[in-house]
Amino acid sequence: MTEPTRRAATAQVGADLLLQQDHPVVMGVLNVTPDSFSDGGRYSGLAAAVHHGVALSREGANLVDVGGESTRPGAGRVDAATEIDRVLPVIKELTRAGVLTSIDTTRAAVAAAALQAGAAVVNDVSGGLADPEMAAVVADAGCPWVLMHWRGHSQRMQDFAVYDDVVAEVRAELAQRVDDAVAAGVDPSQLILDPGLGFAKRAEHNWELSKNLGRLIELGFPVLFAASRKTYLGRLLAGADGEPRPVEGREVATVATSLLAVAAGAWGVRVHDVRSTTDALAVWRATGSPHLQRKP
Ligand code: PMM
């Protein structure tokens, strides 16, 4: 078996396990970017990134989500070659260390290279909208694909945060993303949906989606909830001066909202600090709360 074939086979086994398992999946965030809103610049060197990815895995992350392009509101784009240069060595090393990874990208070329390097899952914040080639890459690989709700790239996305009924609209747009993916040959059993908190959403939209996560779960796909450290949590916890609580002070709120999402039936959560979430999930399990969400 050639090395890429062996990596692909290992990734496939891991991906199958992820979709079948009956406990919440924890996706740990590893941004190898200079400018992500929470961890930008901290893991841009290979050794630091790999060390952190292994640490996230040891703390209980089922999957480490490697991203090479910041998607914070207002962020500019980098080219595909830069993105590949950032993520590929990290994915290769983590795969070698036995850590299951997802690639956080909207580009088909980056996803294809990452899958070749051993990534098991494609996490596409554009839900397939940004790159028309993405569906073919995913269909060909037969890997899980996270379709996040998205209305445009970071520089302009907040202009599109306009809804009459955010839950109904996000639900309908995600259902359309599923239809498009399936029409392009993607196996529906490999799809995971994500409401895209903070992406073309204001705080009130994020809270409405959090309160009504069940309406998205009703679509019959695993749902990933990714609130970690986002600005709306900072706004909720604003000090007397009205300034959002800084990123470092949003961990307890992240754990609380992630746990509530799991209790509501989310398949998984995407978080920066894995230990605090896995601790909370351990308590949740010890109190006998089953993970209720099942695919129909
Ligand atoms: N948010 C960010 C990046 N990738 N992927 C998914 N599936 N869902 C999200 O909400 C999401 C994401 C935002 O940036 P971060 O990497 O700093 O959290």
What does the secondary structure layout of this molecule look like, with pairings?
Layout: H1 3-20, E1 25-31, H2 46-58, E2 63-67, H3 80-96, E3 101-104, H4 108-116, E4 121-124, H5 134-141, E5 145-148, H6 166-183, E6 191-194, H7 203-211, H8 213-217, E7 224-225, H9 231-236, H10 251-263, E8 268-271, H11 274-286
Parallel strand pairs: 1-2, 1-8, 2-3, 3-4, 4-5, 5-6, 7-8
Helix pairs in contact: 2-3, 3-4, 4-5, 10-11
Bound molecules: pterin-6-yl-methyl-monophosphate.
Task: Fill in the keyword field for this structure.
296 residues, alpha/beta, 11 helices, 44% helix, binds pterin-6-yl-methyl-monophosphate
Based on CA inertia axes, which overall geometry fits? globular
Q: Give helix and strand order, one letter per element, not per position.
A: HEHEHEHEHEHEHHEHHEH
Strand order, sheet with most strands: 6-5-4-3-2-1-8-7
Approximate helicity band: 40-55%
Gyration radius, in Å: 18 Å
Which percent range describes the beta-strand content?
5-15%
Biggest sheet, open or closed, and with what strands and sense?
A: 8 strands, parallel
CA-to-CA gap between the ends? Answer: 36 Å
Number of helices: 11
